[in-house]
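Q: Here's a chain of 103 amino acids. Please give me its 3D structure as tokens.
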Amino acid sequence: MGTKENAAIGQLLSLLESRYAIRVLWALKDGHPQTFRLLQDSVGGITPNTLNTRIKEMREAGLLDHGSSGYLVTPLGSDLLKRMGDLSAFATKWVAAQAKQKV
């Protein structure tokens, strides 16, 4: 992997490592817009201040937008979520493997 690819991955991971960032995106993965309050409830446990910060960061990154019905992922955000879709299958396998190790 080249320097440019490493820098791009580093920038993306820096954004997604922020507390609740992935959860905010994940809450919008179905493509339906959510109001601020509904998004806060969907994420669970996030303060309004933190949610405002994450929304601002992800809007600046081009991953979220605000429409007349609420917040939604942009086509770029949708592409990222599609690529992250494999995480669900991996997480299921990983949890099962972890459970076997504890037995």
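Q: Can you summarize the key feature?
A: Strands lie at 64-67, 70-73.
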